[in-house]
Amino acid sequence: MNKPIRIALLGLGTVGSGVYKLIHRRAQEMPQIAGAPIEISHILVRNTAKERPGVDSSLLTDNWADIVNDPEVSIVVELMGGMEPAHTYIAEALKAGKNVVTANKDLIAMHGGDLLDLAAEHQCDLQFEASVAGAIPIIRPLKQCLAGNEISEIMGIVNGTTNYILTRMTQDNMEFADALAMATELGYAEADPTADIEGYDAGRKVAIMASIAFHSRVTFDDVYTEGITKIQSTDIRYARELGKAIKLLGVACNTEEGIEVRVHPMLIPASHPLATVNDAFNAVFVHGDALDDAMFMGRGAGELPTASAVMGDIIDTARNLLMGCTGRIGCTCYKNVPVKSIDDIRSKYYIRLNVENRMGVLAGVSGVLGNNGVSISQVLQKQAAGDSAELVVITDTVRERHIRDALLILENMSMVHEVSSVIRVY
Amino acid sequence: MNKPIRIALLGLGTVGSGVYKLIHRRAQEMPQIAGAPIEISHILVRNTAKERPGVDSSLLTDNWADIVNDPEVSIVVELMGGMEPAHTYIAEALKAGKNVVTANKDLIAMHGGDLLDLAAEHQCDLQFEASVAGAIPIIRPLKQCLAGNEISEIMGIVNGTTNYILTRMTQDNMEFADALAMATELGYAEADPTADIEGYDAGRKVAIMASIAFHSRVTFDDVYTEGITKIQSTDIRYARELGKAIKLLGVACNTEEGIEVRVHPMLIPASHPLATVNDAFNAVFVHGDALDDAMFMGRGAGELPTASAVMGDIIDTARNLLMGCTGRIGCTCYKNVPVKSIDDIRSKYYIRLNVENRMGVLAGVSGVLGNNGVSISQVLQKQAAGDSAELVVITDTVRERHIRDALLILENMSMVHEVSSVIRVY
Q1: Chain B residues with CB inside 8 Å of A305's CB?
Q2: A107-165: pLDDT as tens digits
Q3: In this complex, which of B290, B307, B310 lies closest to A305 when CB atoms are compared?
Q4: How does pLDDT run across B320-374, given as a tens digit for each residue?
Q5: Of A140, A326, A366, A414, which residue is the least packed, with the fewest Cβ within 10 Å?
């Protein structure tokens, strides 16, 4: 039998604990699955004195040097998250010829390119399946199974917290604040939910997927993000009347004028496969020239689902180690495609306005839109109360900058009390 | 730059033509994607004289020896289908140290184990992603991404023809024969549709998926198959009233008493992700102990979708060739789990009966079911006409053999004119 492959876990939070459990749960089968036993030799934690039930405390260390200088450690599994010290540790591990598996989307979305270059230089694996959409296989399918395609579009629900919030708003008519409170109570939302509800978390995942799908480096800085804090249950109700659902989507398109990468709420047809992906589930929809449409759905977060993806990477790296082919699949960004400004992106829009309740208002609004090159596809006149009325306009496809110009004018018209919502329409 | 990797295509039908097109469409990028140019050096066809527009006729040969004896050919791509001569050619190619990519589900479902052993003996790749569910990545995700899981269940819509037929029956209230005729006209069904409509095609795919998911060899012979020829639009209508859809499902479960592998129509809740997979789309639902639920959806057949999966395998093998690690992932069946008889499988059932239209019939039917250990969960009394009435019974979970015993008796009772339908319920 091959001698054990020794791995070091950096971090023993939710995902780290999941990986610890899975490694032990599968220990007996690893020689057959991976080709050799897989053993944890170190666990890097901040506080080695803390009680950790079920964890072999002899593995704990707070000293990174113990790991990076140990020639027996061949895979470093980084599950601390955040930029530092994760960035430094991963770079040092690669320089020491150690393979790296990470679930760190923040880091990969910003520095994935440099780290992959470093991995290539040292003929090491750098794998990060768990950084996007938890348990759902998406990085490896994009890099391998779908490698014969020209991928033109990726669209995904890649943040479970916001999908849970929108599901509650849709199914239980809750308002955003109440749904967020419920998500926090259930542990779906963190104490500071900003990264989720503002779309930053989804934006990092979209940057990673776009880089792989389009073979051109996209970083988080390139991604336009807009969260779900302004969505009201009214919008969800009107969307339903239009046969649509509202989802927070990460969208990446490879167009002739460049790459579009953005995260924002969107009205999608109720019949679209993504429309039925509810609660904390994630799903990624991919369009390629050969495969046509495909969708991958599953758990986007959580202890064991995320650990499932990490384990897949560990096993893959173990197989590469045993076959002497680490670094087998490195960076696949061999193009340099520009990223389009959000101003140049074209979309349809749902615009909900609170307006004066009198004749001539619709003509006024349509006039402003028309003068800015925005044509109207559909108008819903909703309830009126006293001197106020609600107007919902669905536009034809138009460039973002034209909508912005039109909205600036509408916001300053006396007949418009408020531009209540502006949401893109698929 | 690395020297070109030469591949031979066996067969130039629908999938072969798709692969030919894709190889040419991606030719310029292959050095970056795969690490070397990929060139077709031979195409094995029956008739080299036939006109094939767009195909370089100098590559055509009807002589297998030209290919197997050419040391320059490093990947044989078998796209002829069927058992012979595909089986012999693949075995000879592996013995000659050539890597093999195939889309041949018939062959892999029967002889996959032996061929994988042969591949291992010669340190070659034998890849077959396209043999299951067309463009949808499922073999590689199961062997790699989800390798840290104990998979307990796979359930899939893996035959596009029957899914198209059931979709037409559901959405357009068509009867089976009319929907089949439409599928034939549109090219979704073959001239002889037996393998599709009787569930054999799906059975082969389930055998392959079960072998990989449960690490134990399952062949097509082990799979219980039941097709959709007896489904009537009435059943679909009643299912809808019950909040369910009827789908032809391939089901593989790893239970404590052994592996269950079967293909049959099934009533599934309308809210289940598979219920909304319509037309010729395929989808595979997987449950694992770490990942929880996941679903993979996409095109299960067609020229370019299937070629997409073949290309993924070719590129993977090319990368292995360049890294000197062919045979990197071989057979993963290291267990020997028994396959359960269909008689021992437990399920709920939908039973539609045409009975005498009089008092006491329901009591009679319930009595027979009860005497055979079948308890009833729900009864629908449907329309009565003259002396006939329609009765739909949904049972609780029961062992298959008990249902069969009960049906034998029901069929011979004078008060039962006909057992019109028996369909399993998820």
Answers
A1: 290-292
A2: 999 999 999 999 999 999 999 999 999 999 999 999 999 999 999 999 999 999 999 99
A3: B290
A4: 999 999 999 999 999 999 999 999 999 999 999 999 999 899 999 999 999 999 9
A5: A414
**pLDDT higher than 80, residue A179:** yes
**Contact partners, residue B158, CB within 8 Å, separation at least 6:** B132, B133, B201, B202, B205, B206, B209, B250, B282, B284, B300
Contact A291 B311 (CB under 8 A): no
> Which of chain B's residues have a Cβ under 8 Å away from the Cβ of A288?
308
pTM of the complete model = 0.96
B342-425 has the same fold as B148-298: no
B340 CB neighbour count, 10 Å cutoff: 20
CB pair distance less than 8 Å for B147 and A311:
yes
Q: Catalytic residues of A, which ones? A: 205
Averaged confidence pLDDT in chain B: 96
B120 interfacial to chain A (CB closer than 8 Å): no
Topology, domain A141-299? Dihydrodipicolinate Reductase; domain 2 (3.30.360)
Taking CB atoms and an 8 Å limit, are B308 and A34 in contact across chains?
no
Are the CB atoms for A320 and A301 separated by under 8 Å?
no
CATH of domain B342-425: 3.30.70.260
- The alpha carbon of residue B118 is apart from the nearest alpha carbon of chain A, in Å, by 18
Instruction: Name the superfamily (CATH) of residues A5-134+303-323.
Output: NAD(P)-binding Rossmann-like Domain (3.40.50.720)
Whether residue A34 contacts residue B330, with contact meaning beta carbons closer than 8 Å, is answered with no
For B120: left if phi > 0, alpha if psi spans -120 to 50, otherwise beta; the answer is alpha
Cα–Cα distance measured from residue A16 to residue B73, given in angstroms and rounded to the nearest whole number: 45
- pLDDT tens across B220-237, in order? 999 999 999 999 999 999
Using the Cβ of B288 and the Cβ atoms of chain A, whether some distance falls under 8 Å is answered with: yes
The model's pLDDT over A1-28, given as tens digits with 9 standing for 90+, comes to 789 999 999 999 999 999 999 999 999 9
Determine contact: B137 vs chain A, CB below 8 A.
yes
A289 touches chain B (CB under 8 A): yes
- Identify the CATH assignment for A345-425 out of 1.50.10.10, 3.30.70.260, 1.10.1040.10, 3.40.50.1000: 3.30.70.260
Q: Is B18 on the interface with A (CB under 8 A)?
A: yes
Report the alpha-carbon distance of residue A55 to residue A64 in Å, rounded. 19
